[in-house]
Amino acid sequence: MNRYSIVELHGDGIARELSQAVHTVADALPFEIEFIPVDLSDESREAKGDAIYDEAEAAMRRYGTSLKYPTATTKESPNRVLRERCNFAVIHRPVATIPGIQTHYNERIHLDIVRIATGGTYEDAGRRINRDTAVSIRAIERRPSVLASRFAFRLAQLRDSNVIATSKYTIQKATDGLFQEAARGVARDYPATEFREELFDALLAGIIMRPERYGVIVCPNEYGDFLSDMAYGLIGSIGLGDSASYSFDSQGQVDVAMFDPAGGTAPDIAGQNKANPTAALLAMANMLRHIGEHDSSKALRGALFGAIEAGEKTADIGGSLNLSEFTQVIVDRTKSALG
């Protein structure tokens, strides 16, 4: 039996309940997962300070793969601290229509949004230069642009999809122009994969009008952040999305990977067995694919989509199941799919 060690980064609010759902599903899989716990809750961060981040970073680097639950942003954003400490260069957010969830958008989408994890407008908070004027510096670097583009093309090969590089390159000619130049250079290494470039504002309209034209989208930091939330809105909720962050070694291979649900801590329902674990389990499915357990990844993702389409879902998306009941449905469907 295969055995994997996965760092489990605990958080706040519904985090413990999401962890219970993940463990319940893990126990049903045909291999063993050892979870290495690290407490990143606000209480732990307040008590231990930087020491808890030292512990988290050491574990993430030692074991290579981690699963993170929602954390409250108080004195700092744990996501940002981990991103900086682990040198995450690429963030991947898959977004797909889930049949059985009512939305205001009738078309079906299947997007993989790949964004640079650093740079853009997020690296510099800016400064006031007088009462009425403020400025900030916007940076785009070639290496993360290349890493994000390569990740996008490899993902497109797995999906048999296209790659679209997007930014505002006609306006931000130096910064976004550098990003597009890097993406264009990577595209030459993948001649069998359809590639095109689109301005970001046109792309937003294009996804809504003709979503079938879009597969894997690669873009600078802030564009990917905006695009992800918009796309989650099209499928019904930001709480249905998951995210993955990657750092790379000198050879361009992933050396640290972190998977997490895109939603928040939901303190208003914490401890009530009401949370929807879909995003956490989608993050788990993405993690399973990363470690090479493709059949289990596909089975878990199919179980989630199949259950929701059949009306077996939690109350927040129109169903009647609590967290525990929904998790058991996913376990049963996953086991059935794996035979």
Structure explained in plain terms:
- Helices cover 42% and strands 21% of the residues.
- Strand 6 (127-130) and strand 7 (133-135) form a beta hairpin.
- The relative contact order is 0.16.
- The protein is of the alpha/beta class and 339 residues long.
- The longest helix has 18 residues, at 142-159.
- The protein is built from eleven helices and twelve strands.
- The strands form two sheets. The protein has a ten-stranded mixed sheet, sandwiched between helices.
- Helix 5 packs across helix 6.
Features:
two-stranded antiparallel sheet; ten-stranded mixed β-sheet; alpha/beta
Quick description:
This protein is α/β, with parallel strands linked by helices and 339 residues long.
N-to-C CA distance? 16 Å
Instruction: Look at the structure and give the mean pLDDT.
Output: 95
For the largest beta-sheet, the strand count, sense and barrel status come to:
10 strands, mixed
Q: Output the strand order for the largest sheet.
A: 2-1-3-12-11-4-5-10-8-9
Which spans of ≥5 residues are poorly predicted at pLDDT below 50?
none
Shape: globular
Structural class: alpha/beta
